[in-house]
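Why does residue order matter? Because the sequence determines the fold. Keep that principle in mind as you read this record.
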Amino acid sequence: MTMLLVFLVSLLTSLSETGTTDWTAVEREVRIPWDLEATPLQIKTDSTLGSNEEIHVTLLNQKGGYISRVRLMFSSPMQYGISGCNGDNDLPVQPPVEEDKIWTITKTETAITITCNGVEVLNYLFASSSDNNCVKKLVPYKVEHIKINVDDTASDFYKASSVGSLII
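Structure:
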């Protein structure tokens, strides 16, 4: 049992140090099956604040029809946009200063939440939008595919967010 525990700790340490736990290189304009309500999306970037690089994730329904787009702009300060809900706005909480960032995008029936390196930078409630299309577009439709847009200049890798933890 001790050998197994030592092996698991060694493996987890190695994976966390190398950062190679199931990351996939981003290909733009490729439709990817993804149930965003069940599986948060993680995107790895190395863009810096003020670089004007952008993350663009298009949200699609089961048939590949357009629902919305989530956009993060590495301006100074950083901004976000959710098409059909709002224009470009400053993130309510600016992300950590580290250059290497892991962004986690989660959609529920009522909101889109974005974290960066574990810090929540946005919790956007659809009902708070002044645009009536926001609720009409994002609440009733389930995101079943995503696409990294051709205008995305920041996303390097993506993966499913881990939802559990190791219990020994």
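The two ends are 10 Å apart (CA to CA).
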